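Hi V.,

You were right to ask for the full record rather than a summary. Here it is.
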Amino acid sequence: MRLIFDIFGQTLRTLWAHKLRSFLTMFGIAWGVGSLLLLVGMGEGFRTGQRKQFDEIGDNVMFIWGGRAPALDGSFTGVHWYYLTLKDYQDVLSECPDVKAASPVIQRNDVRSVSDFYQSSGQILGALPNLNSIRYLPLAQGRWLNDMDNAQKRRVIVLGDESRRVMFPGRPSVGSTVLLNGFSFQVIGVIKRLGHGDNTNQNLMNFVPFSTMLENFPPLNTGETVDAISYMNYQPRSRELHESAQLEVHKILGRNHGFDYTNPDAFDEWDTVRTSDQVGKIFDAMNLFLGSVGLVTLALGAIGIINIMLVAVADRTREIGLRKALGATNSSIMFQFFIEGAFLTLMSGGLGMAGASGLMSLLSLLPAPPGWDTPRLVPWTAATAIGSLAFAGVVAGLYPASKAAHLQPVEALRRE
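Predicted structure:
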């Protein structure tokens, strides 16, 4: 044990004797490790932020709106608009085995909302009670719409957080009354704030029972379409079935509206599952790029370690010869350089990791832009970076030390 402490003390004295050289080497390693960890941490923050945005939409949510279909089969010039209807929703619900749930939505942006204190012009959506099982709509106060609200066409409303803040500033909203184009609606609930920063689009959405919306505020500009809806949300039975569920819905709409369901241009839709997978591929490419940058960084750090250890061993060849003449073994000499390389690398890597972690902590105090989350230290990246550099430091020290240790004492003492 005493021998180990002696070797460790000798290592510290050697590094202190060459303060500038040791500092520059450690700074280069720490800078490389810190930069790598910060890059990976920011990439992970972006990935987490995007995942949160998708989670705030809902779990495997599919959107589909009315679209344009060829006026005649095989025609590429004449097209006609078609609008989704309640029948489309009912057929999807009864004839699509891979669709877990579906909900029709009527949306209007021209309905004026007035409270006793202020007015707002947010979105009014007519929805069935099951919409909150498809979309992410957590409640902050009150309750959500129920089947009796829809069956009895009750004039009740669930406010988005921004609408609540505008129309009831600093005052209780649940139980109060809101006028929608002159019709009195009772506030029964408030949705939690969604999104980050100034992204308030989701927080301006207000929900009323679907039957009430259809009776009082039906969709505009739908021509002669009966029971038209604005769009439909649906969910596949599992994430893996999203494409087959989408195809089943396409077939229903193609049959009901008289066009070829295999024509992709006839549909206006958003598959959040596919979008999420595409974003995931972007992150995979980003990870590959960051990994390449990390390899270059680690390689440069390794070169720095190899350089400093080669110089250290060359400077101390006579010392090695003297120690061998006094009875030092090859293994003890090599162990000393092993300790020097490992200590230099681990100390530098630890400082780089601490610097990156501190900078990430400072960044967490700033407001995150939309789609970003606080950068965080990725443990496996830190372990890989420091472990690789430690290995490089050990190899860099052992190789020249092994050559020097195997020199004959007289030959080593002659070296300049």
